[in-house]
Amino acid sequence: MILVVASTIIAVLYLLFVFSSIWLLLNHLAATHAQVMTATQELPQSDFARFWYVGKILVMQRAADFGIAIPPSPWFKATFQTDIFSPAAPPGTVWLYPPTMGVLAMLFSALPLAASFWLWRIFSIAAASFLLRAGGLGWLPIAAGLASPAAFHDLLAGQNGTLLAGLFVSSLLCFGAKQRLGGALAGLLCIKPQAAIALPMILLQRRYLAALFWCLGTAAAMIALSIFLEGWRSWVWFFTVAEPASGRILNLPLNRLAPGGYTVLMMARSFHASVAEAWALQAVSGVIAAILIRAAWTHPDGEPVTRMALTACLATLLTPYGYFYDLVGFSIGMAAMFEKSPMRRKPLFAALWLFGGYTNTLQNLTGFVLMPAAAAIGAWAIWRADRPESRAS
To answer: How many domains does the chain have?
Structure first.
């Protein structure tokens, strides 16, 4: 009876989330009042508009280096009124990504903005599906993860969470039997380094040296490509403007931070901790998570799916900077644990899968960031389930 009630509640909450997301998407893309991107207003394509804008600017700048003038169109100048490459750009609008992400932005800026948005979504879902299948994950957790509430957040925001989840989760699944592939996928995460924050605890072990070499080689190739396409100044800008801006954003008062953060740092701030206290709690959480990740990957006979899901939980406790659209990988892990767990444990993993998207809703309702508690519960449940006596039961 309890399982039936829990399943019904989760199903209803999921359907409500899906229908509300579709309604928001249709209204967002049909909006006529948001056709100018300023410091306080977005285009209907949301965060993707910034990505596309950066690609256009980088193409113009690189063409100018070779004496080719590509002037911005009147529409471009009228639409994009905030220079997100400027150090003076308001927090939350400045471009924070390394030049390796700029390589992708340049590729997707070739099409008009609206068409490029949908191509980006199709590419992200297709690439993540292909990579997760190559990593050995079944179609059920792949579909559930990529249709999770967190993935809908990623869709609405026009963000990169789905693609990065495909790279991160697939790399974890491949580190055991396909180290070269796993290392190459890990190296591609240099487009957003904080998405790979858990990987050093794994790769800096002797048994994963092959994956480490492929990771470093792939990252080096991406960096070289970014220098070729964007020039050295792109990296100078990243270290002198973007990186300091990231630190300033994390130290802003909570009411000025973008909503939807999920980290221990942001949770502490939501409970009125000072900046210093929040960073101290984040440091403690990060150290504990790092130790547990290393311990989980010390034994070569670990079950790949379980170890991946555990790492996805612990990674959320490790990073100080993350938002709801970054929780697609966590949702994939919970969907995978749901598939392989006995019936009595399925409601827990289904609820955690749902929580990856509802964390922003709960923050709006309560004012508190609660995702770290959910991630800790998930890690504890997986750790216990992976013990020999638990598997025997």
So the answer is: 1
